[in-house]
Structure formats: structure tokens, C-alpha cells
Amino acid sequence: MVEILKCQRHLFNIPEDVVYLNTAYMSPISFNVLEAIKQGSTLESRPWEISPKEQFFDDLEEVKSAFAKLFNIDSKNVALIPSTSYGISSAAKNIQINSDQKIIVLKDQFPSNVYPWFDLVKHSGGSVEILDVGYSGNITANLINAIDERVAAVAIPNVRWTDGALLNLNQIKEACNGAGAKLILDLTQSAGAMVTDLSLVQPDFAVIANYKWMLGPYSTAFLYVSDKFLEGSPLEQTWSGRKDSDNFSKLTDYKFEYQPGASKFDMGERANFSLLPGVKAALNQLADWGIENVQNTLQNNSRMLCAELDTLGLTTLSEKERAPHFIGVKLPDNDSSRILSKFREDKIYLSERSGYLRITPHLWNSREDFTKFLSILGALI
Predict the structure, then answer these.
(1) E-strand spans in 177-305?
(2) How far apart are CA 241 and CA 267, in angstroms?
(3) How does DSSP classify residue 191?
């Protein structure tokens, strides 16, 4: 049964007078994640206790398995990476494009899912189309209408990072299949806050950075690699991605076969002794809450906030058009600096991107937080 979760502020180091509504920028890590990172760093201060088998291999597989369960995939399709740009660059290295083909990205999507595609066409030919699908209305249909046989790949988010606009990935994947186009996803602004079944969407690649809705540490991320690309080329040539790399005494018996699955796509120095325990703690917390419960709770709060914003005369996307956890409000021209400055004075923290005020609370927010925010916003407009 899906639940409305209680306020979880006690799990985070957020003072009572701080109203943090900026998960789209960066999540605070929980006390549990912080403690796990401390323990990992302590281990690194005693390297004689670092086990080649456990810390270099077994711990990584546990983390991959925990991630895979949350997104209904096999852990063999999961790689550990440091960032969105790393994952998108890994995908771009494996996409074939002809001179008369193009890559579609969206206007105003995050640049880490834009620049690698321009680099690809610079060296391989073809072009990048930055598609303006509009602010409201059926932006999924607008995108699908642009997908035809000239499209080599569609590289998009699930949720637009500027305003919270939601794309229907299942419909887009169907259109890609019909046109023979690959689908590459940046799920950083949706994974962890929305139920995401990658076994249903079946993208070719998907990237998820941990430091936002996954509630994990910065500089850690995951890459999903579909079965059809498991024989592809990784961005790096790491020793740990090779067959028999767990036998440290034989590492100079160079092996040119890779380990099975997506391990070849893992970043170098993937066994991050400090941060990996924090990633695992964050994954366990999401599993404990249940992502469906997280989504339901955040959506319930968004409904309330959007109703109040409407009474203030502010325009938001309809519930059907926006992500359940992400509200974007168009700000008056040249007024964002004044509004954000006033919010900071009152210890209310949000962000503005491309003219939209991003209101992105999480389970640490209370009714008192929302009341304070709405009261001060009402006085500002």
C-alpha cells in the first residue's frame, strides 16, 4: 500500500530555522550517509585493513545490486561512474552516426547531456538539433513529431531541470524504436523521486548522478548500459575492468578480455573507499522509504503548493505536465536576483534556472517550512 511519509527532518542536519527547498540543486546528505562516509575515510587511513577482494570488488557489486533493485534491472547492466558528463560521453562513444543523420536534444536541457553530442558530430559527422518543445502543452508529442529516420539518437531527460516539465519516456522509446533511433537518458532530476522502471523504458543508456534526488554524495553516479551495448567501448581502459583483475598477483599478465557485463564501463579508481559507503547508505534509505512512497508524498506536497501559488497569481505547469516532485514558476523579468536575495535573508533556499524559480522540497520539509515560504513569497510579488 502506498503511503504518505512523515517528515524526515530528524535524519538530516538541517537547522529548524532553515527552509531548504532546493533538492534540484543538491540534496543534503543524511546523518547515515555522513557516518558511512566517515567510516569509509577512516578505513582509508588504515590501508592495511583494505581487502582487495572486499573493498575493490565485493562492495562494488553490493552497491550495484542495491541500485539495480530500485530500478528493476540486472546489476550486470550497471556501471559506477563519477558524473553525468562521464556517462553521456560513454554513451556518445558508442553511437554510430552518418553525415546525414542528427542527434536530438532539448532546448534548455542540462549541458552535460549536450556537449558530448556536439563533440561526437564534430568528429563523426552529422548534426545536433536543439529542439524547442515549448513550455506547456504536450511536449512529449512535440518531441515525437521530430523523430524520424534521420535521427540517430534522442538524448533527453525525464524531467526538464529548469521548470520540472515531464516527458513520457515510454511513448518516446516507442517512437525511437519505430525510427531506428537510440534513446539516451539523463535521469538525474527524476531518479529517486519518481518510480522509474528501466526494464519497461528500455533505454540504450541512462545516467543518474547521486547528489540530487538519490540523496548520495557528490562525484558519484550510475550508468545503465543495455544488453545491446555491453560489447561496446568504454571511455577508459581500466585494469579493474579486465578479466581476472581480482587476482592482484597476476595483473601484469595482461588480459585484453573484459569482465562480463557493464564493468568495463566503470570509472578508473571505482573502489572509492570514502564515498562508496555513502552511496550504499543512500540507496538503502531510498529502499527503506520506498520510492513509490517518496513520489506519493512529494506529489501530495506539490499539489498543495501549486494551489497556493495559484492564489498568488503565479503560473505553474498542470499536474499532468509537471513531475510530481518539481515545481517551476516563471519569474518577472530581471526580478529573480531580488527575490532570491530576500529568500536567503530569511534562510529560505531555492534556485532559479532560465527564468524559472525551482521549488523542489523533499521529505525533510515540514508544513511550517511551506507556510513560511508562501508567506514571504506573497509579500514579494
Answers:
(1) 182-186, 205-209, 221-225
(2) 9
(3) B
- Angstrom CA distances, 189 to 3, 126, 130, 168, 178, stand at 22, 28, 20, 14, 27
Rg of the chain over Cα atoms, rounded to whole angstroms, equals: 21
Whether the predicted model's global pTM rises above the 0.90 cut:
yes
Task: Please report the DSSP string for 164-181 in residue order.
Answer: -BB--HHHHHHHHHHHT-
Domain with CATH 3.90.1150.10 in the chain: 9-21+290-380
- Express each pLDDT in 247-260 by its tens digit: 999 999 999 999 99
What's domain 9-21+290-380's superfamily in CATH?
Answer: Aspartate Aminotransferase, domain 1 (3.90.1150.10)
Domain 37-287 bears CATH identifier 1.20.58.1000: no
Tally the C-alpha atoms within 13 A of residue 84's C-alpha that lie toward its C-beta. 22
Smallest CA-to-CA distance from 359 within 340, 337, 346, 380 is with: 340
Report how far residue 253's alpha carbon sits from residue 259's, in angstroms, rounded to the nearest whole number. 15
Buried b (16+ CB within 10 A) or exposed e, 189-206: bbbbbbbbebeebbbbbb
Q: Where in the chain is the domain with CATH 3.40.640.10?
A: 37-287
Q: Say how many C-beta atoms besides its own lie within 10 A of residue 349's C-beta.
A: 15
Q: Is the dihedral of CA 210, 212, 213, 215 positive or negative?
A: positive
The C-alpha cell at 132 is 524547442
pLDDT in tens, 267-320: 999 999 999 999 999 999 999 999 999 999 999 999 999 999 999 999 999 999
Cell numbers that stand for 242 in this block: 579486465
Phi-psi region of 258 (alpha: psi -120 to 50; beta: other; left: phi over 0): beta
pLDDT tens string 333-360: 667 888 999 999 999 999 999 989 999 9
Tens of pLDDT, residues 14-60: 999 999 999 999 999 999 999 999 999 999 999 999 999 999 999 99
CB 186 within 8 A of CB 84: yes
